[in-house]
Amino acid sequence: MKDLRDWRFPLKRLVSLVCLATFSFAAQSDSFLSKLKQEQLDINKKTNELESDNLQLDWINTINGSYTFVNSDQVVDDRETGMFSVSLEQPIFKSGGIYFAIKYASANREFLKLSTSLSEQTLIKSVISSWYTIKKLELQIKRQEALIENAKIDIVRKKEQYESGFLDSSYLDNAILSKSSLQKSLLDMQASQHEQIMAFKALSDADYMAIEPPRFVMITEEDFLQNSLAVQQKNANSLRSEYLKKMTISNYLPTVSLTAGYYDSRVDSNGNIENDTYKNVGLKVSMPLFDINIARNIEIKRLAHLKSQIEIEDTKRSELSEYLSATKEIQLLQKKVELAEQDYELYASLLHSTTELYEAGEKTSFDVDTLKNSQETMKYDKMIYEIEIQMALLELYAKMNAKL
Question: Sign of torsion, CA 385 387 391 396?
Answer without folding.
Answer: positive
